[in-house]
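Re: [ENG-882] Designed sequences occasionally contain unexpected residues at chain ends

Forwarding the minimal case from QA. Structure tokens:
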């Protein structure tokens, strides 16, 4: 087997390696050939997936950047008659100039197999493959990101970009109002329990709510009236957030479940937000003017990004009480960036820098891994050798 001389030109190297995959996709390889070919794959597991993929009943589909080996075969099932097995092996070239492989089953495999019948150009075929992998475009080192899209930024790392130029302030306001729900619920639950104790009604609490046991039927309306009146008078509101439901008890008798209506809690939170609008506007202004460096780890990728704070603690006045709000603006794999550079580091791919233009909400994730159980099996098989 002829050794491939890897070119300094990445596109030429990519073409030669994809030719290598295509030439050997239908061949039953000898042990010597397998040992030779392993050098061109990213990991031994990538090579193992390629070596063990079926060599019969396959179609080979070539796009500009990928080789797809599509397998479809109808077999007689043991219990359910005939069954059609569909799977696809996708081979591409990583940024490091090595071959990676991923196996897809079911609908994803069918989507890749259908590329052959679509009369697509090589570039259109690439776009179809990228959509299955979970991104739209490739982001080059030093590139300025200004449009909302799904980007592959380094190796198997992808980045979702959403524009927040016009709605960041509204988004922060919604998040602050939503963060009021939990402390507000605690205030109302305290009023409920105090009212029950005052009226000498025994109760129990659980993750499902507050429950009152009774041997008689039909007391849910009376209990609801008692509790809703206490909440309205204590908080000075006209919204009734209390719900009481009667259920049969397993030991005989009845259980009255006391819960809170989340929609009504949200309505009360909006009224509180209206009453302290200036305070919330000040919180939003402070968040938008603050910047902190955040370190995000996704797989083996380390992303360093300047972002507005992920978590903010502040106090607002709720019915004469100073209540601490714990406001989570976004999750650990996200950031909100304004006209800044982000740096992505990897032990194999090196360092990549991207420029984010405008105010963008970004989220990092790994591209679709396909059938992970097959790849895990390949890794475990190699470890056991």
């Amino acid at each position: 087997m002829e050794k491939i001389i890897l070119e300094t030109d990445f596109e030429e190297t990519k073409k030669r390696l994809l030719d290598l995959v295509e030439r050997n996709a239908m061949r039953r390889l000898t042990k010597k050939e397998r040992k030779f070919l392993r050098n061109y794959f990213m990991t031994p597991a990538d090579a193992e997936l390629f070596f063990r993929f079926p060599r019969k009943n396959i179609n080979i589909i070539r796009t500009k950047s990928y080789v797809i080996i599509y397998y479809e075969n109808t077999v007689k099932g043991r219990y359910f008659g005939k069954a059609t097995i569909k799977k696809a092996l996708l081979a591409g070239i990583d940024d490091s100039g090595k071959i990676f492989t991923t196996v897809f089953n079911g609908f994803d495999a069918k989507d890749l197999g259908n590329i052959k019948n679509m009369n697509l150009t090589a570039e259109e075929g690439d776009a179809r493959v990228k959509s299955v992998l979970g991104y739209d475009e490739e982001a080059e080192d030093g590139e300025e990101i200004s449009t909302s899209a799904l980007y592959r930024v380094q190796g198997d790392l992808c980045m979702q970009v959403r524009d927040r130029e016009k709605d960041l302030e509204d988004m922060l306001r919604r998040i602050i109002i939503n963060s009021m729900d939990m402390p507000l619920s605690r205030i109302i639950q305290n009023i409920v329990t105090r009212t029950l104790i005052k009226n000498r009604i025994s109760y129990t609490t659980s993750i499902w709510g507050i429950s009152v046991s009774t041997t008689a039927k039909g007391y849910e309306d009376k209990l609801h009236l008692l509790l809703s009146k206490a909440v309205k008078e204590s908080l000075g509101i006209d919204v009734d957030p209390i719900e009481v439901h009667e259920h049969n008890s397993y030991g005989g008798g009845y259980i009255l479940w006391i819960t809170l209506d989340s929609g009504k809690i949200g309505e009360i939170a909006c009224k509180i937000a209206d009453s302290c609008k200036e305070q919330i506007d000040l919180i939003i202004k402070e968040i938008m003017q603050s910047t902190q460096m955040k370190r995000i780890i996704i797989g083996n990728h380390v992303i360093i990004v300047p972002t507005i704070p992920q978590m903010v603690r502040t106090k607002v006045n709720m019915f004469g009480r100073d209540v601490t709000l714990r406001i989570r603006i976004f999750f650990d794999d996200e950031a909100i960036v304004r006209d800044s550079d982000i740096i992505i580091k990897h032990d194999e791919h090196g360092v990549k820098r991207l420029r984010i233009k405008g105010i963008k909400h970004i989220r990092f994730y790994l591209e679709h891994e396909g059938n992970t159980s097959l790849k895990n099996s390949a890794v475990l098989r190699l470890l056991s050798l």
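QA comment: On inspection the terminal residues look reasonable. The chain has a mean pLDDT of 89. Proposing we downgrade this to a documentation issue.
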